[in-house]
Amino acid sequence: MRDLFLLGIVPFLLYAMLQRPFIALAMLPWTALFFPNGWVYGMAGSIRYNLLFAGVTLVAYLVYKHKPTFRLSGLGMLVLAFFFWTTASTFMAIGQPEVAWEYWNRLFKIIILFLFVLAIVEQKLHVDTLLWGVVLSVGFYGNLEALKFIASGGSHMISGIYGHVLADRNELALAFVMTLPICVYLLGEYGKRSRVIQVGLIGTMCLLVFAVVGTQSRGGFLALLTLGAYLFLKSERKVLLSVLIIVLVALLANFASSEWAARIDTIESANEDQSFMGRVVAWKLSFIMATQHPFFGGGFKALENFSVWRDLSQHFFEYPWFYTGDSLPPTDFARAAHSVYFQVLGDHGFIGLFIYLACLFTSWVKAGHVARTAKRAGGPAWLINMAVALQLSIFAFAFGGAALSFAYFDLIFTLFGLTIVTEKRILPAELAKLARMKEHRHDRQHVAVPGPAMTASHSR
Amino acid sequence: METILWCLDLVGVVYLCYWALREDRRTSGGGNEKEERN
Fold it and tell me: Does the pTM exceed 0.80?
């Protein structure tokens, strides 16, 4: 049944995508994060939707007659510099080259998505459609799994679909947290237009919070708390938000299992927790790899190559200031880096990490700059809210990603692209519109209030 | 239940495409069509 349904809607999606490249673009993160292939078991499962949709996006863009001028900006240059750096590091990979090139290929597709964002998105409708695509993929999965979590009385542990980019429950939790500010923005924009959208988005936000708890991810829970505090500081509806938080916490208390509470309690005693200190061991080995290959690092996934892991373990005691408690590197298997920062440090060296950090920091600053400039100039509320949502989502990634190997996540590169577009295209267009309106108002005032000479001639 | 919600999500995606297309035609007079009319 699912196969028939999916195959039934694909022609309509393709038609709409070919009509407007921005619709095609919105379908790219949707298909990447929704993962249609993971839900069907028959003939619909044999289609590579990602590839098909990317091809259609390219065709739609090429035939579209009103292409905006392509602008890269400083942040765009940084993202491309990061990609070129990863290419160089892949050539010099110390792990298995085929694995490194496979992950390079994944990043290449994400960079294509990033470039499509820069080439296609030019107005609010385009950004909103793309953000709706994210909510209809990550938000949908969060809703579904949270409902299972509630129905099971809190015993259902949420994890991703096997083979999906969000298969790991920690990464899934972070994606849920990153989707929350997007829901807040869309609720502000479309909630008043339709009761269905309002109820749907408020329900999605509450269920996403449940879904984060349901993953039992400590990193995800910390990211949620921090995002909540940040959102509270930025929000102009502090009373409403406080009531919402109190209601959610009261509801969650009924569903959070004792196992979950025990896991969360270990955050306080992280330096005694073996699971957490195991991550610190992986961080230290990533650091050692970067000291041995400071320029290009070890290449994608080098740390997870057991022979590399074993070689690095021999240098484990060389940096005693890097505290790992009593934990030692496992001798029979290799671990992932478990931090976006140490992952990039190990994979692409100190320079790679520097460029990656610059991308994150610049995008966060630029989004804040758009919000401030729009506010100061009396710009539209939606632009301020959109920029704040982008900033919060980037912040959630930067904080929550500190304990996850999730550096090359499609959504963060999409947010980089949206930040550039918001700053370079949407903000200037809105400021120009404001200036024109002011000028027009000024002209009308001059016409409405006649000058002394005119008054004199009329009186005669 | 899962399948029903899954189908509803796909309906949401179809509606998103339809809405985006309609909004774009309404606000900009329609990209390619506009040029063709001219």
Answer: yes
